[in-house]
Automatic annotation (TrEMBL):
Primary localization class, coarse: cytoplasm
CDD domains, A to Z: Anticodon_Ia_Met (cd07957), MetRS_core (cd00814), tRNA_bind_EcMetRS_like (cd02800)
Cofactor: how bound: Binds 1 zinc ion per subunit.
Protein name: Methionine--tRNA ligase
Residues involved in Zn(2+) binding: 146, 149, 159, 162
Catalyzed reactions per annotation: tRNA(Met) + L-methionine + ATP = L-methionyl-tRNA(Met) + AMP + diphosphate
Location of the motif 'HIGH' region: 14-24
Family statement: Belongs to the class-I aminoacyl-tRNA synthetase family. MetG type 1 subfamily.
An individual GO BP term: methionyl-tRNA aminoacylation
Principal EC category: ligase
Role according to the record: Is required not only for elongation of protein synthesis but also for the initiation of all mRNA translation through initiator tRNA(fMet) aminoacylation.
Positions bound to ATP: 333
Subunit structure: Homodimer.
Length: 677
């Protein structure tokens, strides 16, 4: 790292078609933020770039479904995303958006340079076209039957049932989602980045030159390169995006995969006039923090773009993470199976660092991992509260009790004291070694070892007992405990910034640089510390149960949405149907049937008579809410005794997919006895 004077950190641009969830945070933004904060503490020149990806088909689909414009969609979600990041403490130096004028200009200039220099290949091919709407169809605007698993609603680029990557022409019975018609194939011209021409260079640059990359990143790159690279379209037929800057071309935009990474460059332009220093000076190190779904784009495609352009730096490292699942199920925006950041911030005020801690401690660095609310609770209660919070609280409470908040003088040191103080510097070295190698999860564990060291030291020395026999010795013990506490404010600052700010308030201490970590006199004798509060608080079972119930409700809603109606029964003759005499009637009395859970006894005015009906709807209706309600009643059903009560008819109900019942009622009040046909 010594050959670099500065570091440029980029973070994957989230699609502005939905909020941020914990999968995004664990995969990209929390590790990037930790690393950036660490470098800033070391007084290194570092900038962290972020922004919303506001082009592409997911945006247009969202707009179409909601009956609004794509700009309306991105304006709404860019605001939600940006606000959530700020409140959560992701320390971007700039958070931009790809719909900005600066980005459109930058992306256009980038394309035009490659176009003018003949770096693209022009190809004419047949693509699906919707004749009713006079437009070419993006892959996601085409659905059909998957040729692999026969799922009837597979998209033109992927089957979400079996996960197979597809091309639109592979679909069986393709249909336009815009008009519902079958599309036709029509010729269209596009420009392609000839990745096959960069294959020899990529082999040397990645496979030979970057063997230090994480195994999951290196392995995916090797698999792609070994399989042979193909030219990739950089333009598409769409009306939302950066227009292709070529005369005579209308209705074409830059493909979102091409324009999105250029967003890192345009965002840096917005941040500083000195943007070229961060992008073109060879003494700048560029790091891409991304999830595994973006590895190919950031390790193969974007570097090939930069290589073709010729004046930009290439990434030095791409520390990509794998995916985070939620309660043993894949996080899904479309199924609402996620923990949304903006909702978490509302439901867990002041607990930003708890989520950061859990996501880091359980980070999916080399394989997919799972977030569970029970693990969230356990890590908070057993680690943040019982280890870190417990040590800090004991150290500060005893200082208030014994010395009225003043740091006592250190006396002669025992071997145990010397070993403990030396271990602070050792822990610093372990944290640095891990974080410099992008093993962020390991670095957090190493940093927490400092709190464990403090707890062990306190437990070994037992100052609350020694104070009775050797008050001078306790001064040394408490001084060392306070020095460990002060060191914690540096060591854990990248990981728990809100909590360490709070702890510095307890210690009456200014923020210190990383170089100070390991020093054993951060708090001078006589320094006054403030009365402490709890650094973390326990999370009760009821809080976790509420979150689990929220997910259970989501799962039930998904099952309901995906449920199919039962097949129609065998046909009957009209004469069979007219035998049924269904009338509108009004409930005039209603009560539960004793010793049953499901039965209600109703008295119904049918317009013909007043009769008793026993119905199994007690789980879905209270007796009082049915009195005065009009219902549909089959009046010529043979009477039947239920729990000793003669039931003279049947109330018509609709049975939902989950088995719940809803009474079928006229939408307007009608005369009792009116026939229902």
């Amino acid at each position: 790292m010594s050959k670099f004077k500065r570091t440029l950190i980029t973070t994957a641009l989230p699609y502005a078609n939905g909020p941020i969830h914990i999968g995004h945070l664990a995969g990209v933004y929390v590790p990037a933020d930790i690393y950036a904060r660490y470098l800033r503490l070391k007084n290194e020149d570092v900038i962290m770039i972020g922004g919303s990806d506001e082009h592409g088909v997911p945006i247009t689909l969202k707009a179409k479904n909601e009956g609004i414009t794509p700009q309306d969609v991105v304006d709404r979600f860019h605001g939600i995303i940006k606000d959530s990041f700020e409140k959560f403490g992701i320390s971007f130096d700039v958070y931009s958006r790809t719909s900005s004028p600066v980005h459109h200009e930058t992306a256009s200039e980038f394309f035009k340079k490659l176009y003018d220099e003949g770096k693209f290949v022009e190809k004419t091919s047949e693509q699906y076209y919707d004749e009713a709407n006079n437009q070419f169809l993006a892959d996601r605007y085409i659905i059909g039957t998957c040729p692999k698993c026969s799922f009837e609603k597979a998209y033109g680029d992927q089957c979400e049932s079996c996960g197979t990557s597809l091309s639109p022409t592979e679909l069986i019975n393709p249909t336009s989602t815009i008009s519902g018609n079958q599309p036709v194939l029509k010729e269209t011209t596009h420009w392609y980045l000839p990745l096959d021409q960069y294959e020899p260079w990529l082999k040397e640059w990645i496979l030979e030159g970057h063997k230090e990359w994480k195994t999951n990143v290196y392995g995916q790159c090797k698999s792609w390169i070994d399989s042979g690279l193909m030219p990739r379209a950089v333009t598409r037929d769409l009306d939302w995006g950066v227009p292709v800057p070529v005369e005579g071309v209308e209705g074409k935009v830059l493909y979102v995969w091409f324009d999105a990474p250029i967003g890192y460059i345009s965002a840096t332009k917005e941040l500083t006039e000195d943007w070229e220093t961060y992008w073109k000076d060879p003494e700048t190190r560029m790091l891409h923090f991304i999830g595994k779904d973006n590895i190919v784009f950031h390790c193969i495609i974007f570097p090939s773009m930069l290589k073709a352009e010729g004046t930009f730096n290439l990434p030095e490292n791409v520390p990509a993470n794998e995916f985070l699942n939620l309660e043993n199920d894949k996080i899904s925006t479309s199924r609402n199976w996620a923990v949304w950041l903006h909702e978490y911030l509302e439901e867990f005020p002041g607990k930003e660092d708890v989520l950061k801690y859990v996501l880091t401690a359980n980070a999916p660095e080399t394989k997919d991992n799972d977030f569970t609310w029970k693990d969230f609770q356990n890590r908070n209660n057993n680690e943040l509260v019982a280890v870190l919070g417990n040590f800090v609280n004991r150290a500060l409470v005893l200082t208030q009790k014994y010395y009225e908040g003043e740091v006592p003088a250190r006396g002669e040191l025992t071997d145990h004291d010397k070993e403990t103080l030396a271990e602070i510097a050792n822990i610093k070295g372990e944290v640095e070694k891990s974080i410099d190698s992008f093993r962020i999860r390991e670095s957090l564990k190493n940093a927490m070892d400092l709190a464990r060291l403090g707890n062990k030291y306190l437990a070994d020395e037992e100052p609350w007992k020694v104070i009775k026999t050797d008050a001078e010795r306790v001064k040394t013990v408490m001084n060392i405990c306070l020095q460990i506490t002060a060191n914690l404010t540096i060591c854990l600052e990248p990981f728990l910034p809100f909590s360490m700010d709070k702890l510095r308030g307890f210690l009456n201490l200014e923020k210190m640089d990383w170089v100070k970590l390991g020093e054993t006199d951060l708090l001078p004798t006589g320094h006054k510390v403030n009365k402490p509060e709890l650094l973390f608080e326990k999370i009760e079972d009821s809080v976790i149960e509420a979150q689990l119930q929220k997910l259970a409700d989501t799962k039930k809603a998904n099952e309901m949405a995906e449920a199919k109606a039962t097949p129609a029964k065998e046909n009957i003759e009209f004469d069979d149907f007219v035998k049924m005499d269904v009338r509108a009637g009004t409930v005039i009395e209603c009560e539960k049937v004793a010793k049953t859970k499901k039965l209600l006894k109703l008295k119904i005015d049918t317009g013909i008579d007043q009769r008793t009906v026993v119905s199994g709807i007690a789980e879905y209706y209270q007796p009082e809410e049915l009195i005065g309600k009009q219902v549909s009643i089959l009046v010529n059903l043979a009477p039947k005794k239920l729990r000793g009560i003669e039931s003279q008819g049947m109330i018509l109900c609709a049975e939902n997919a989950d088995g719940t019942l809803s009474i079928v009622s006229p939408d307007k009040t009608v005369k009792n006895g009116s026939e229902i046909r």
